[in-house]
Each structure stands twice: as C-alpha cells, then as structure tokens.
C-alpha cells in the first residue's frame, strides 16, 4: 500500500497535544491523515482542529474512529487514565487496531501493557520519542520502537509520517522503553553537567556569551549544553521540557538499574540536582532551570536569543 492510499484507508487519532504531541499531530495532518485529536484542555484540541481534523470530547471518541491511536501523554499514570479511566480508549478501540504509546515509562510496565491490550485484541507499539518540539513539528524526531510484526504492518506509514528515524528494536514491548531511558540518562546528566559548567563560569566572572561561544566550538560541547544554556543566557525558562520531567525520567533510570543492582553514580547525582530544583519551586520551569540550584548565580542582564553567538 502506498502512503497516499494509507492516508485514505487508515484512520488515525492522537491524544495529548503538548509540546511534542502538537508537532506530531501537525506532521500527521500534513501527511494527509484525517486526524482526530483529544487533549484534556478542550480549547487546545479545538484550536488545533481549526487547521484541519476533528477535536473529540473524550479519548473513547477518538478511539472508536481510529485504526491507529497515538498517545503522547506525560507518563504511565496518564496512559492508564487514557486507556482505562472514565471515557477511556481500551473499551472503544476495535480489535486489530494499534495503540502507539510514546511516553517515557518503565520498560516492565510497557511490556505488561502489551499483554493487557492483547487480551482485548488490541495491538500495541512501545514507541517513546526524542528530539524536541521543533523536530516533532518538522517530522524529524526519533522513535525508539518495539512490538509485534502485526503492529508494525498496521502503523508503519503513520510512524514514518511523524519521524525521520524509526528504530525497530525488538518484537516485544519494553525494548523501546529501555533504549529511551538510557537516552534520558544521558540527556539528564548532560543538562546537569552543562548547568554546573555554566554556573562555575558565572561564579568566576567569565562573560557568559563568550563562554557559550567558546564551549559550543570546543570539545567540551554537547547538544544539551548548546541548546539548554541558550535558555539560561536568555533568562527564558519557559518549559519546553520541565525540571519535573527529569525528576521522573531519571527516577525511572535509577529504578531500572536498582532492580539489577547496577550502580549509576552520575545519574544519581543528576537526579538529586533536579530534585533540589523541583523542591525549590522550579519543577514546572524549563529543565535548564536546574542551574538555579547553585547559590548566588546571577546573569548580568538577560541576553536576547539573537545576541547569543
């Protein structure tokens, strides 16, 4: 089946129009899918539907019209609510339809969900995502997926419409989530390290814009330093990915390692930094706000984004 035929024959729904979900929904709509969407904030779904598609009042309303249902909520608890709560999807999805789960969750929980949905005749894809809101909006993000061949056969073109890289990591759920939490280990540690480096530079009186320019063109650079320290220089902590996301995700990393008695000293330290930032009241700010755990660190005036080298 070519992609044009697939968009006409396969009905697609998406639940969760946050920073990533909004971009993924836009990519699906741009690919030609007649998309149904749901968000707990009804106005957000209705606003999206003004550009094409249909806003639904409940997850079940999306599900009963979907051959492929993409869930882009925050965590396992929200996924449980989407599926099994009041007005949930599980009872409304048709046998043979696919539930694509894009949240960062414990691998064992994802594997168990595959079994629970299979008992209802529903296919499942463990499909956490990475890349940020901009890449989601341009269909350039990465998906770390695992599931049965039947699930892939049903939703392959849908995945390709949302992501530049769709990695198939196994034929059972859980493998995708394992790779995602390892990615989150690195992401969280890199953000914490970037914040620590910038904080030291500020304490030592280094010009922050000059420091950013040098590091981003030197061996010590990382994608997270380049991306997140630009937020710090701009003094803009609008949450694209919040501090509390890494409280959760690094918690999952540590829980997974603890089960096999595997030591993760850097992850544990980074987790404590995000916990400290959250307990200080910065949990809903951008994850770059972890720099605020360092005392007495003040930028000499906000630097606008276009002034950052």
Question: Keywords, please?
Answer:
Rossmann fold, globular, nine-stranded mixed beta sheet, 309 residues, N-(1-d-carboxylethyl)-l-norvaline Dehydrogenase, domain 2, alpha/beta, 13 helices
CATH topology-level fold name of the largest domain:
Rossmann fold
% residues in beta strands:
5-15%
The CATH architecture term of the largest domain is: 3-Layer(aba) Sandwich
Order of helices and strands: HEHEHEHEHEHEEHEHEHHHHH
**The CATH class of the largest domain:** Alpha Beta
Characterization of this structure:
This protein has 309 residues and is an alpha/beta fold. It folds into two domains: 170 residues, NAD(P)-binding Rossmann-like Domain (Rossmann fold); 130 residues, N-(1-d-carboxylethyl)-l-norvaline Dehydrogenase, domain 2 (Orthogonal Bundle). The chain is 50% helix and 12% strand. The chain has 13 helices and nine strands. Strands 1, 2, 3, 4, 5, 6, 7, 8 and 9 form a nine-stranded mixed sheet that branches. Helix 8 links the parallel strand 8 and strand 9.
